[in-house]
Design brief:
This protein is mainly alpha-helical. It has 18 helices and four strands. The strands form two sheets. A two-stranded antiparallel sheet has the order 1-2. The protein has a two-stranded parallel sheet with strand order 3-4.
C-alpha cells in the first residue's frame, strides 16, 4: 500500500480520480456512517472538477496517509484554481480596513482565511495570506488577545479592539496556517484558555466588553456565547490534547446543553430552528454544521469513561437534523441558502449539487461514526422545535 501512496502523488489528475473512485466502489473503505446517507457520495466527489472537493474526499478514507490526502496533482490544481485566487484577492490590508459589517460577514478577513483553509490552502501556499498573518500577529491587547480594526458606535475613528469574536477566529487561523509555534500565537492561545470560565449555562466563554470601545456582544453578560465558545473549542482542538485546558470537554457539554434546552433557554440571537439546521454557505456562523464540526473533535463526549448518555443523544439528534435538512436522496448537497458574492463557486449557488459542501458535511459524520445506530434511530419530526424545515425523517434502521 505504501508504494501506491508514492505513485499516487505523481500520477495525473484523471488517473487519480479513477483510483479514488475505484477504491470507493470496491468498498475498500466502507465505514458505518455511510449507511446514514441514501447513497455513498464519495465516488461522485472524487470525480468532481473542483480540486478542493477531491482533496476533501480523501479525508474520509481512514487508511490514506497524510501525503496522499494532499496529493501533488490536486494540490497543484488547487493553487492555480481561479476560485482560490479570487478568494485570496478579497483579503484586506489588516492595517487599514476596518470591520464594519459584523463577524459573520463574508468580508471579515478571518472568515476568508478559514474558508481558504477548508478548501485546502495551507502554510506557505500564498504570499498574500502570509502577509495578512504577519499583520494579525502584530496586534494583541495587553493580555494577549488578538485585535481587529473596527468602527464602533459613537466613535468616528476606527480603533483596535479585542472581542472574543476577533481573538478566537484570528488565533485559529494562525494555527491553521502554521503559525502555532510563534510566541505571539502561543500567548494568544494561552489567553484563550485562561478566559474559559463559569457562565449561567456552564463552563464556556462569555461576551467580554472591549476595554477600549466598551462594546460587548449580544445576550446577558453572564450567559455563555455559543459562537465564541465554538470558536475557542475548534481552535483548542488543533492543539495536542495534553496542551488543551482541562475544561474543554465541559465547555463542549455546555454547547450540547444549549441544544437540549433550546425551547426553554434560547440564547439571544442564536436559535436552533430551521435556519440553524439548513447550512448557509459558506458556513461562517452558528449552525448545526459548525456545532458538529467543532464538537466531533472531542470524542470524550461520546466515547470512554467521560461519555454521557445525554451528550450522545444530543449529538445523534443534531446529526440526524444535519443530514435530513441538507442531504438529498442521492446523498449529495445542493445549497439551499448562500451568501451573496460566491455565485461562481459550487457552494454559492442553489441550482445543482456541490461536491465541496457534500465533502465538508461528510467529515463530522465520519468522526461520529460510532453513533451511527443512534443517529439512524432519530425521527426528527418528533423532536421539539423541528417544524418548519424541509427535512425528512430518517428511515428506521433494519436488522
Amino acid at each position: 500500500m505504501g508504494l501506491i501512496f508514492l505513485i499516487f502523488g505523481v500520477i495525473d489528475i484523471t488517473v487519480g480520480r479513477k483510483y479514488i473512485a475505484g477504491v470507493v466502489k470496491r468498498g475498500d473503505f466502507s465505514e458505518p456512517w455511510i449507511s446514514l446517507l441514501p447513497q455513498d457520495p464519495r465516488e461522485w466527489i472524487a470525480s468532481s472538477e473542483e480540486p478542493a472537493a477531491r482533496l476533501l474526499v480523501l479525508s474520509t478514507f481512514e487508511d490514506f496517509s497524510s501525503a496522499a490526502r494532499r496529493s501533488r496533482t490536486d494540490r497543484k490544481s488547487l493553487l492555480s484554481d481561479p476560485g482560490i485566487k479570487s478568494l485570496i484577492a478579497r483579503l484586506p490590508d489588516w492595517e487599514k480596513e476596518a470591520v464594519v459589517s459584523g463577524h459573520n460577514s463574508p468580508s471579515f478577513a478571518p472568515n476568508i482565511l478559514h474558508l481558504l483553509a477548508d478548501l485546502g490552502l495551507g502554510p506557505g501556499d500564498d504570499p498574500q495570506v502570509e502577509r495578512l498573518l504577519d499583520q494579525m500577529l502584530c496586534h494583541q491587547d495587553s493580555d494577549g488577545r488578538f485585535q481587529s480594526l473596527g468602527r464602533w458606535r459613537n466613535q468616528p475613528e476606527a480603533q483596535w479592539g479585542s472581542l472574543f469574536c476577533d481573538a478566537h477566529a484570528i488565533a485559529e487561523a494562525l494555527l491553521r496556517f502554521g503559525r502555532g509555534s510563534d510566541p505571539r500565537a502561543k500567548r494568544g492561545m494561552d489567553r484563550m484558555a485562561a478566559d474559559l470560565g463559569p457562565t449561567s449555562q456552564g463552563p464556556g466563554w462569555r461576551c467580554r466588553p472591549d476595554p477600549v470601545t466598551g462594546f460587548r456582544g449580544p445576550g446577558r453578560k453572564d450567559d455563555f456565547c455559543p459562537m465564541v465558545t465554538l470558536e475557542a473549542l475548534r481552535a483548542l482542538a488543533r492543539l495536542p490534547e495534553k496542551e488543551r485546558p482541562a475544561g474543554c470537554l465541559d465547555a463542549a457539554r455546555t454547547c450540547l446543553r444549549a441544544w437540549r434546552e433550546r425551547n426553554a433557554e434560547k440564547p439571544y440571537m442564536f436559535g436552533h430552528g430551521r435556519q440553524f439546521k439548513i447550512v448557509k454557505w459558506p458556513s461562517f456562523w452558528y449552525d448545526a454544521y459548525r456545532v458538529l464540526d467543532t464538537l466531533s473533535r472531542y470524542p470524550g463526549l461520546w466515547m470512554g469513561k467521560t461519555a454521557r448518555n445525554e451528550d450522545r443523544k444530543a449529538l445523534a439528534e443534531l446529526t440526524a437534523c444535519l443530514i435530513a435538512y441538507n442531504f438529498d436522496s442521492a446523498g449529495k448537497i445542493t445549497p439551499r441558502s448562500c451568501y451573496k458574492g460566491f455565485e461562481s463557486f459550487s457552494f454559492g449557488q442553489k441550482k445543482k449539487p456541490s461536491a465541496v459542501t457534500t465533502a465538508l458535511l461528510c467529515l463530522p459524520l465520519r468522526r461520529l461514526s460510532e453513533l451511527t445506530d443512534e443517529i439512524a434511530a432519530i425521527d426528527i419530526l418528533h423532536l421539539k422545535s423541528s417544524k418548519g424545515g424541509t427535512g425528512t425523517a430518517l428511515p428506521p434502521k433494519t436488522a
